[in-house]
Amino acid sequence: xxxxxxxxxxAGLMFIAVGVIFAIGATNYSMGPACPPNDPCxxxxxxxxxxxxxxxxxxxxPLGLSVILAVLGAIVLFxxxxxxxEGGEKxxxxxxxxxxxxxxxxxxxxVMLEPVGMxxxxxxxxxxxxxxxxxFHWKGVAIAAVVLTVFSWAIFVWGLKLTIPVWxxxxx
Length: 172
Known about the structure:
- The protein is mainly α and about 170 residues long.
- The chain contains six helices and no strands.
- It folds into two domains: about 80 residues; about 80 residues, no CATH class.
- Helix 1 runs antiparallel to helix 3, helix 4 runs antiparallel to helix 5 and helix 5 packs across helix 6.
């Protein structure tokens, strides 16, 4: 079988690999409450799934996302082998600069989050990661930093009640 889209082929393989690796990792966490032996969910798959979705464990959501990612990867991989593209969509040179900047931005965020809190570390993450693109405008970066910081606080601290430090260590 001939590869008809090189980009989709490698992207599909990457999605499958990441999905499988994270699915294996998610199995280390609880999927939810176990069925008692006399409970109907012990014998019926659909009853078991409905119980899990009503009381999911820590591994339920990551496993679901991992499986979806692997299935999407399989679809992309299948299409790369069956749908003809112009020129075969060859994979070009590797973009090392943006990749390096993004890895550095995430590492800096991880190091900064505990001591300086979300209010400072999220905008720093946005500014550093914005340098990876071809266009950089301070006004757009500042707006994105403010909006993403507010949404991060709203989702993770207020909505999900995660214990993420919001303020710097000296202001807590």
